[in-house]
Amino acid sequence: MPVITYREAVRHALAEELERDPNVVVMGEEVAQFNGAYKVTEGLLARFGPKRIVDTPISEAGFIGMGVGASMLGVRPVMELMFWSFYSVAFDQILNNAANVRYMSGGQINVPIVIRGPANGGTNVGATHSHTPENVLANHPGVKVVVPATPYDAKGLLKSAIRDNDPVMFLENTMLYGDKGEVPEEEYLIPLGKADVKRQGTDLTIVSYGRAAIHSLKAAEELQSQHGLSVEVVDLRSIRPLDIDTVLASVRRTHRLLIVEEQKPFCSVGSQIAFMVQKEAFDELDAPINRLATIDAPAIYSPPVEVEQLPNPARIVKAALATR
């Protein structure tokens, strides 16, 4: 099976869907002539032409609004945000309009738009470029929220997102773009709303997603080798729809839960999961649910300090040992 980068996996998904469906278009800042700010769309302009790969002005409100309108008329736009931090400029277009059109039209009008790009800290670009808005997005009925951690998941989930008839918010991570993994050459899809047990264990469940899931896997290895703990790692992959059944099944096997996320802790995805688990599986827990998130402050610019602000394997190991 070929080994490719996360960046290449996203590019392959885009190329395959552009080839498959003439209604698919890619739009965003620098996606065409510059080959993408992160080189995700490299080569797509030469292959598919300027009517399918479209550079936009630096106006998220403008081009996201254009994409929402186009999707209502049968186009399937994939919109690239250079940073998800700037989704707030298009908050009305995404969460007041795209999220509600299908409902308010009585199901007569679909909005099959994908909005994708990086949403993460860790790159030392300061507080205004380091937001992780999956909790805000998921709070709005009508949108789907996906946060892939591996090249395999990124490709399979993006292809499903492009084919979905609802708005899908696809949050990537610049720190993962160079990560490599096995990705099949043959076509495959990963359904939205299906978590993945990336490591089986018996003593503790770690629920995570995105880059925090990669850190959780590294921490699980150390917990096994240094402390003799068997840790199960559940990668949510989708925030909404949320596969709570897989989470509950894992907790019923291990009886302990640590939630790890690159979110601020207040009103986070982890808050919702903790509530749902204690509501449905309280009697299965042998210890209080524990949570590890980004330290609750704006993203710190200093490289060595930001590393400690975010979840990292050492912080996860410490939190896991405390979940007892």
How would you explain this protein's 3D organization?
This protein is an alpha/beta fold. The chain has 2 domains: about 5-180, Rossmann fold (3-Layer(aba) Sandwich), CATH 3.40.50.970; about 195-320, Rossmann fold (3-Layer(aba) Sandwich). The protein is about 35% helix and about 15% strand. It has helices spanning about 5-20, 45-50, 60-70, 90-100, 100-105, 135-140, 150-165, 210-225, 245-255, 270-280, 305-310, 315-320, and strands at about 5, 25-30, 55, 75-80, 115-120, 145, 170, 180, 195-200, 205-210, 230-235, 240, 255-260, 290. A 7-stranded mixed sheet has the order 3-2-4-5-7-6-12, sandwiched between helices. Strands 9-11-10-13-14 form a 5-stranded mixed sheet, sandwiched between helices. It is globular and about 55 Å long. The relative contact order is 0.12.
Using brief descriptors, characterize the structure shown:
single chain, 324 residues, alpha/beta, Rossmann fold, 12 helices, 17% strand, globular
**How many β-strand stretches?**
14
Instruction: Count up the helices.
Output: 12
Order of helices and strands: EHEHEHEHHEHEHEEEEHEEHEHEHH
Mean pLDDT comes to: 97
CATH homologous superfamily assignment of the largest domain? Thiamin diphosphate (ThDP)-binding fold, Pyr/PP domains
Strand neighbour order, sheet with most strands: 3-2-4-5-7-6-12
Low-confidence stretches: none
Helix coverage percent: 25-40%
Q: Would you state the CATH class of the largest domain?
A: Alpha Beta
CATH architecture of the largest domain: 3-Layer(aba) Sandwich
